[in-house]
Amino acid sequence: MTNVPIEGILLPDEKHNHESPSNWKEYFSFSTDHKVIGIQYLVTSFFFFLVGGIFAMVMRGELMTPESDLVDRTVYNGMFTMHGTVMLFLWTFPSLVGFANYLVPLMIGARDMAFPRLNAVAFWMVPVVGIIMMGSFFVPGGPAQAGWWSYPPVSLQNPTGNLINGQVLWLLAVAISGVSSIMGAVNFVTTIVKMRAPGMGFFKMPLFVWAVFSAQIIQLFGLPALTAGAVMLLLDLTAGTAFFDPAKGGNPVMFEHYFWFYSHPAVYVIILPIFGIFSEIFPVYSRKPLFGYKVVAVSSILIAVVSGIVWVHHMYVSGTPGWMRLIFMLTTMFVSVPTGIKVFAWVATIWGGKLRLNTPMLFALGALIMFVFAGITGIMLSSVPVDVHVNNTYFVVGHFHYVLYGTVTMGLYAAIYHWFPKMTGRMYSESWGKIHFWLAFIGTNLNFLPMHPLGLQGMLRRVASYAPEYQYWNIIASLGGFLLGMSTLPFIFNMVISWMQGEKAPANPWRAIGLEWLVSSPPPVENFEEIPIIVSEPYGYGKSEPLTANLPE
Amino acid sequence: MDSYIDSHELHHTAAEHTHDEEGNKMFGFIVFLLSESVIFLSFFAGYAIYKTTTPNWLPAGVSGLEVKEPTINTIILVASSFVIYLAERALQRHDLVKFRLFLLTTMAMGTYFLVGQAIEWNGLDFGFTTGVFGGTFYLLTGFHGLHVFTGILLQSIILVRSFIPGNYDTGHFGVNATSLFWHFVDVIWIILFILIYVWQ
Questions:
Q1: CB-closest option in A182, A196, A243 to B132
Q2: What angle do CA A343, A344, A347 make, to 5 degrees?
Q3: pLDDT digits over B139-184, tens only?
Q4: Rounded to a whole number, what is the distance in Å from the CA of B53 to chain A's nearest CA?
Q5: Residue B56 has what DSSP assignment?
Q6: A 185-224 → B contacts, CB under 8 A
Q7: Interface predicted TM-score of the whole assembly (ipTM), two decimals
Q8: Closest Cα to residue A266, out of A329, A191, A174?
Q9: Cβ atoms within 10 A of the Cβ of A315, count?
Q10: What DSSP state is assigned to residue A533?
Q11: Rounded to whole angstroms, how far apart are CA atoms A467 and A32?
């Protein structure tokens, strides 16, 4: 292990980024650089976010009136199915993988991921998944219409009798997306375990890395179950097997087990990296060390472990016996313990800090507030009596949109603004960022808060028409939805203009601690001229000791 | 070499700091196998639940499974795990001739297993669509068979590679991974055999 500077190779003024991608075309070509791949993931997933958002706009338009009058019912069914699937499999998962790709090697002081080519292959499967999934709109019989969970026997209905129908394409896309995610998980786990810079013990890793590590462990051990279920459903649809078809003696509830054994933990695959992003952002903009670093780190692993034993809470009304419901109610409620630890740690970090309310901090604070709300309705839903009452209603829809939009998407925005200068070498416009934040924050609450009273009153999810007494809240929700849709415009404008002609960003515009801020913006191809040696704990804001040693000036 | 980053040299330094690439590959492969075992575990759990909860587990006219031939198959497959271990040992001693010999033996045993399974399938009185029983049986044995086939494919690749001079002088990731995969496929078969053939 040598750490001598490589003399004579670098001239001081030439050490910055002339090997990093210099024009946009490089981001559209096959690259094995984790930073290019990270941005490829982010741009691709944002494209699908817009697609999923258009579906949402159509649905909110349909729900402005009690009658089903805007779109055909087949189209409506396809829209809610695709909205859910696209937002999960093509927006939240890949965008977080994008951040993980970009940041993890930088944060742990590695030059790249452990398997760069595997990384590129995993990324290029994402557009393939998108094309196959969207292709389902163009085959006989129309798109997949059984909702994102695709429960049989509804998903087994094949109106055209064709081998290629919307549901088959949907299942293929999900299976391919699973393969891509497992490739990614192998890569992340190997990178984090084997490629940390000298001196970086597990308890010196940034919390975002902890979060990615925990999330990828869930991918490794949960995803195969979903893949198994998807393959069996695909065989039922195409080969005539009887796994889930009650008409042939199969058991449809088995699919629910396969599905939720992964798809509940999948929520933590999405939310853990957001927690990691919170943990990176709050200390920087509060100028304080993160409160309770070790406990927050361990709580990620705890969430990952507990996530594997809560899935039946999605099946309280699927004929699950009472004793089993009790067990799963208790384990589900237990998730709030490690989660609560994190929330209190963030609040304690912000408390008494010297706050800078820049756009990333605003988004992170907004997301935290909405997460607390989502957490409270989540605990309500974990309780069997409440769940039995509001099951399959808009209350559930409201709850998970507070998680998936209020927390995850807002958290992603926080991350995009925070690391934008690092990724592009340009500063974004703070005033456009703030306009975006307020539109999004108001829009989110206006859109998803009314869903709670709607659900309590009994409005079912996934319907195109409803009883007239539900219209009042639906109009408010739709107006909120349109506002939310509009909030994307200043964001896109800001990103495109700033990337093209924003002010040049310094290496560390936020005066943050963390290895990624020690390299130029954007970072050079191999990240570090010299692998740093880690000598102190992360998040030492207000402390004097250096984070690393042996870095070039 | 004077005004740009010499990537070869940097990679070299990086490799020293971030452990060896071979080690990373092996670690990644083990992680992959762990994940793979969850797919099998999902199928196994599904099989056990289906078997215990499905009324008329064996559909009418289905006589169940013969155990004798699969037992012989099992013994051959388990024995082949020892043979590939011997191949690995031979390579460590740089005894390429023995390495190839043991590897070929392993491949022959694997092929025997696959052919045996094909003959068995051919003689069964139920199909893929014969109730949940038929579906789970063919899914499990078929998915495992696919792994055996993949294993033989990997073995033929490392066999061919052994004829390229200098290929196996240092670092045997390909060989070690293939061998590990083969042991994995074996262990999975033992569980599968007990689950499907012994527990009838």
A1: A243
A2: 90
A3: 999 999 999 999 999 999 999 999 988 887 777 889 999 999 999 9
A4: 9
A5: S
A6: 185-187, 189-190, 193-198, 220-224
A7: 0.89
A8: A174
A9: 18
A10: E
A11: 54
Residues in CB range of A379: below 8 A, 6 or more apart: A333, A336
Q: Considering only CA atoms, which of B9, B140, B7 is closest in space to residue B65?
A: B140
Residues 6+ apart with CB under 8 A from B38: A220, A221, A222, A224, A225
The whole-angstrom separation of Cα A97 and Cα A123 is 9
Q: Which residue is associated with the tokens 């109610």? A: A329
Tokens at B23, concatenated: 């080690």
Q: How confident is the model at residue B12 (pLDDT cuts 50, 70, 90)?
A: very low
- Tell me the C-alpha distance between A519 and A281, whole Å: 18
What letter represents residue A180's amino acid? S
Averaged confidence pLDDT in chain A: 91
* Model confidence pLDDT, tens digit, residues A188-224: 999 999 999 998 999 999 999 999 999 999 999 999 9
Coarse DSSP helix, strand, coil percentages of chain A, rounded to the nearest 5 percent? 70, 0, 30
| Ordered alpha helix ranges (H), A409-520 | 410-424, 430-448, 451-457, 471-501
Q: At what angle do helices A359-382 and A322-350 cross, to 10 degrees?
A: 160
The DSSP code sequence of A26-44 is GGGS----HHHHHHHHHHH
Cβ-in-10-Å burial (0-12, 13-18, 19+) of A379 comes to middle
Helix (H, G, I), strand (E, B) or coil at A320: coil
In terms of Cβ atoms closer than 10 Å to its own Cβ (0-12, 13-18, 19+), residue A520 is middle
Question: Which residue in the set B10, B14, B32 is minimally distant from A186, CB to CB?
Answer: B32
Query: Which amino acid, residue A74?
Result: T
CA A199 to chain centre: 30
User: Which residue is it, tokens 């002088």?
Assistant: B169
